[in-house]
């Protein structure tokens, strides 16, 4: 049975980590990693940051050719997976070949949500891949006026990078404030003010009425009457999971490829992990979520590998993500919408953490912002408290003199 | 070998904690373990050059503050993704309440 081996569709963070994990776990059958990009598996977080500002951008590979060879991981790049034949356990690729599997992992990720408007042209771009980043980077260096559609993380990180390169930057956000999804208003405000102080113009609460892109510049007409003219518009309005392959194979889709706590799809021989899947989050009573986060991709890739080998281990991690803009780092662990009360803890240098508590006093999330890595340690400790379903005393959380680590032992 | 350098006082670091030490253009991390021993490693994570001293010490593990890369600070061994390159470690000795490291 095992001779067919392990097949992974999608060679990003999740797929790459899954392939490495299979070998770490001692699996010695065939491991094949299929990706539609021409590159080695690489980390995406730098694409909106260092890849823009660095003089010589390069992929940050998860595994080099040497490591893939040494670990007998076959990496097939620049091809699409076209169809899964569940009955025969095979996946047909765009080059016509068919790869057999005994267990299959779908790590197909997500793609930028498209702005469904007429008038979008060549000066309206999206960021997902390293090649996208190179194209945007070339524009940022050659042009001056940059419009960012969407005040989410990708857009704001790009705005910071573009300002660093001297561009004139306007961010357009349809909601009443930036970072509506998952970031408390108190923290979004700090980020908003920092961008303004750096010279970024942020327009919130105004919808786009029309876009005209003549190939040299983009004119964005806002419903409120303003016209933004830019040499380049980067659209960052969220991501959608890549589910086509799974859906056509008849797997259950529910805001992503639906998996159980062990990351198994509705077919017991097919797993899904990372951005493309929705899964039950144990720490919030099995609430079904889909995460678009680097660490989740990494952890779920590794967990899927274990379970493809029969470990039967349930996902238990607490969501975590970060964003870097200018000298500030934001880190959030947990989902703040689970909370109903907030306790603030001030740290040095203007850094602070908001602890989100549920009605029953349980710590459900922590959101922190500050210069450099000033909030990292406490956010990590908060994550452990969340995982333990702890109910720390609000006074202790708010007190600078009580170490969070001491609450963990309690 | 006489390249022992005074890094800090023994009491400057809490138990199960870490402190940054810069010397001669280099940066190190000095650790005090839960069983009250001292250790030293290079100061920057091997993944993305982040100061480990901002990270969390749990037992004999230091976790990078940026992406949670983990190392055993006693041996320097990398403990899983995203780190795969070990940390360099340095000999440490305690002398009259001072922590000295041999940075050779």
Overview of the molecule:
The complex is a heterodimer of chains A (about 400) and B (about 100). With about 400 residues, chain A is of the alpha/beta class. Chain A has three domains: about 180 residues, FAD/NAD(P)-binding domain, CATH 3.50.50; about 120 residues, FAD/NAD(P)-binding domain, CATH 3.50.50; about 80 residues, FAD/NAD-linked reductase, C-terminal dimerisation domain (Enolase-like, domain 1), CATH 3.30.390. Chain A is about 25% helix and about 30% strand. The longest helix of chain A is centred in the C-terminal third of the chain and has 15 residues. The radius of gyration of chain A is 22 Å and the shape is globular. With about 100 residues, chain B is mostly beta strands. Chain B has a single domain, classed as Rieske [2Fe-2S] iron-sulphur domain (Rieske Iron-sulfur Protein, 3-layer Sandwich), CATH 2.102.10.10. In chain B, about 0% of the residues lie in helices and about 45% in strands. In chain B, the strands form three sheets. Chain B has a four-stranded antiparallel β-sheet, with no helix packed on it. A three-stranded antiparallel β-sheet of chain B has the order 1-10-9, with no helix packed on it. In chain B, strand 6 and strand 7 form a beta hairpin. The termini of chain B are close together. The interface between A and B is medium-sized, with 20 and 14 residues.
